[in-house]
Write a structure and sequence with these properties.
It is built from 23 helices and 30 strands. It is of the alpha/beta class.
């Protein structure tokens, strides 16, 4: 029987009796209470009442009227359904980590910083997500309007253990259908299980006989692929597309409104799909062509696009904004891929772009009204948090539970686990997932994962005795953090839940490769110089330590780089020596994207132990007999290996991970000597380019001055004549 809120609260209190509280840790105290009102007038009415009753003098800010420091009377409903509580702390970053590790979700876009770059302000929201809660919210919307159109922007698969039955059960696609989703498109993660996995998933969804959403994507370049001769994987997907009925667009009737929905797969999405065998045409041109066909062949009232392209801060690089500008006949773009949480729609001309974030934490709701000219005006748009307050739909939850039962029998049993099995007890505050994208420094979450890789390889019964020098974990592969309390198999899997190996078993394997010392130093430079532009390339290493100065010239930021052994001994890196490196397959396959960002200047070529370039990284997966050593399983084994320090029969995460250990040191010096000492070849190249540009500018100025003088001289001579 499900516990009541009272029962859950009492159980929590009993479990955590004696734990230090935020009041003790950060001097946490209530600063004010936020009250949502519906208008400026209503906010002032509240302020007036509090002034009369309590003598609290009002002061107006941009969006609210404060009553002293007691209440913040919001002029619009924001920051919660009813309002919010503002807390003061003496260490904002520490408080953020505390609450993130207890299940609260940071609203990253609300963070504010002081002049030293320290966070001084942020909003949280309690988010849960999940299909069962989404079903509840969707059903409520359908009660209000039975003709509601439900769209999805792709990446409906991957991220949890349910994905392990992706190709056999098509659980995610079937659940989308069960929720009432009308149309979706393909995201890059739909290709994580390779061509056969995607084909099998589409076939399983179709064969289930259940209602599933239409799939649309207009820019698959079948002509080019057929001209070159279809590979086996391309043939598999083509057949599955035909069987499922994947189209460029579909027309959906909702009430008396006909909506054409076109799908598109973005440029960056393709870069994030290293196992995708399909070729794609230019997204903008393909949508433009498809919209033209729709207008010619269909009588529709609206044209919407489900796009797995995304929005970016830089409008010039924001793919869906470019799409909106270039294809003005689109009325609406449902934007996926970049996990953007757009609190307000982006508008270009008559086209609106909306996006509700990531991991099913919000349900986006919008209403549009047709204008006299036939175009549509957005009249309402809101993101509804899928929070703990939302009651999960029980029938949906039962379906999910039934599917999850197949995970234990069909997947985890092969590894000797069950999903609820406790691997370790954790009392350490690990960095949040958000911090891996925002903090450019050593993080304990990266430390424990990279250490796990070395442990698992060197403690495998198949270990060949060649010690691992360096293990690398990029932030882009990490999908979840570790909270305090019991860490289960499911928790560990969710922290690295990507992909599939050559063996056909879900989960990316670890791979063996060798890099020269010179390339190891370049890897450090990738982190220091490239990862601010591509945060998924932030590297967390075991065995490799480096110091970098963010103020130095790009591609010359690393000032010290060396290896460390388990005993802490410093080992100087020899440029021409080969070093044994372990990472996951996805990271190896994504090297090309990182190299592109450095315009080929930072070139890393994985090699075998004899120094020969590796052509296919899949062939260098670490094998245990006939099975690949999966990255998530490596972490699980490491967790199990810890000492049982409290004698309860369960391993305990060591206190070692409560702090960092100088693996990545930020030397934020602006001293001129520190900025220019030890220049490398990249600095010389950049300086040379700058000097050439300056020289060209000087020459142009000289030329212009000569031309001006010549013109003046001619004018003077003409006047004399």
């Amino acid at each position: 029987m499900e516990q009541t809120a009272k029962e859950r609260t009492l159980a929590f209190m009993a479990e955590h009796a004696g734990d230090p509280t935020p009041m003790e840790l950060f001097h946490m105290h209530v600063k004010h209470v936020g009250i949502n009102t519906k208008s400026e007038d209503e906010a002032w009415e509240v302020a007036e009442t509090l002034a009369r009753l309590m003598g609290l003098m009002p002061r107006e800010t941009e969006k609210a009227v404060f009553s002293g420091d007691l209440t913040e009377n919001m002029e619009v409903e924001s920051h919660g359904t009813y309002g919010h509580i503002g807390f003061g702390v003496n260490d904002c970053e520490a408080a953020i980590r505390y609450f993130v590790n207890r299940g609260m979700t940071l609203r990253e876009e609300t963070k504010r910083f002081d002049e030293q770059g320290r966070c001084i302000f942020a909003y949280f929201k309690e988010e849960v997500g999940g299909f069962a809660k989404l079903k509840t919210l969707i059903d409520e919307k359908k009660k209000e309007n039975p003709d509601t159109l439900i769209l999805d922007g792709g990446d409906f698969s991957m991220g949890t253990l349910i994905q392990t039955v992706y190709d056999t059960e098509a659980a995610e696609l079937r659940m989308l259908g069960y929720l009432g989703c009308d149309v979706s498109t393909l995201g890059n993660h739909e290709f994580d299980y390779r061509s056969k996995g995607l084909a099998d998933m589409l076939t399983a969804a179709k064969d289930s006989g259940e209602t599933v959403p239409s799939l649309v994507v207009c820019n698959v370049d079948w002509d080019s692929m057929e001209k070159n001769g279809l590979s086996e994987g391309q043939k598999q997907i083509q057949s599955a597309f035909e069987n499922y009925g994947v189209k460029d667009y579909v027309v959906v009737q909702k009430g008396d409104v006909k909506i054409a929905v076109v799908g598109v797969f973005g440029v960056d999405a393709l870069k994030c799909a290293p196992t995708c065998e399909l070729l794609f045409k230019d997204p903008v041109e393909s949508v433009k062509k498809t919209v033209k066909e729709i207008k010619k062949n269909e009588k529709v009232d609206m044209i919407a696009c489900v796009s797995h392209s995304g929005t970016w801060e830089d409008e010039k690089k924001s793919e869906d904004e470019i799409l909106a500008k270039e294809v003005p006949d689109l009325d609406l773009i449902i934007s996926g891929h970049t996990h953007s949480e757009l609190q307000e729609a982006i508008q270009h001309g008559n086209t609106y772009i909306v996006s509700c974030g990531e991991y099913g934490r919000n349900l986006g709701s919008l209403s549009m009204t047709q204008k006299a000219d036939g175009r549509w005006e957005l009249t309402d748009y809101t993101l509804i948090p899928v929070s703990s307050e939302v009651e999960p739909d029980q029938a949906t939850q039962e379906r999910i539970n039934a599917l999850m039962d197949t995970v234990d029998t069909n997947y985890l049993a092969g590894f000797g686990y069950t999903r609820e099995e406790v691997l370790a007890e954790n009392a350490v505050e690990f960095n949040s997932l958000d911090e891996m994208g925002t903090k450019h420094e050593e993080l304990n979450l990266g430390d424990i994962m990279s250490d796990a890789y070395i442990y698992a390889v060197e403690n495998s019964e198949y270990f060949d005795g060649d010690p691992v020098d360096v293990a690398v974990v990029p932030s882009g592969t990490v999908r979840d953090t570790y909270t305090k309390g019991n860490l289960t198999v499911e928790d560990i899997f969710n922290s690295f839940s990507l992909g599939i190996g050559k063996d056909g078993v879900p989960g990316y394997p670890l791979i063996d490769a060798y890099l020269t010392g010179k390339e190891l130093k370049l890897a450090a430079e990738v982190d220091a110089s490239v990862s601010d532009f591509m945060t998924t390339a932030r590297l967390y290493c075991s065995g490799l330590n480096f110091t970098y100065n963010p103020n130095r010239m790009i591609l010359n930021k690393v000032t010290d780089c060396y290896l460390t052994r388990k005993d802490g001994e410093r080992i100087e890196i020899q440029d021409d020596q080969l070093y044994h490196v372990v990472t996951d397959l996805y990271t190896g396959q994504m090297l090309g994207s990182v190299m592109d960002l450095s315009y080929g200047l930072l070139s890393l070529q994985p090699k075998d132990k004899d120094g020969h370039p590796i052509e296919n990284l899949e062939d260098y997966a670490i094998m245990e007999g006939n099975r690949e050593l999966k990255a998530w399983d490596a972490i699980a084994r490491y967790m199990q290996s810890f000492d049982d320090t409290d004698g309860d029969g369960i391993a305990n995460v060591p206190e070692y991970y409560a702090t960092t250990h100088g693996r990545k040191v930020v030397d934020d010096s602006k001293n001129i000597i520190d900025l220019v000492k030890h220049p490398n070849k990249f600095s010389a190249i950049i300086i040379m380019i700058c000097l050439i540009v300056v020289a060209i500018i000087v020459l142009v100025i000289i030329l212009i001055r000569k031309l001006i003088r010549r013109a003046r001289k001619k004018n003077s001579e003409s006047k004399e004549e």
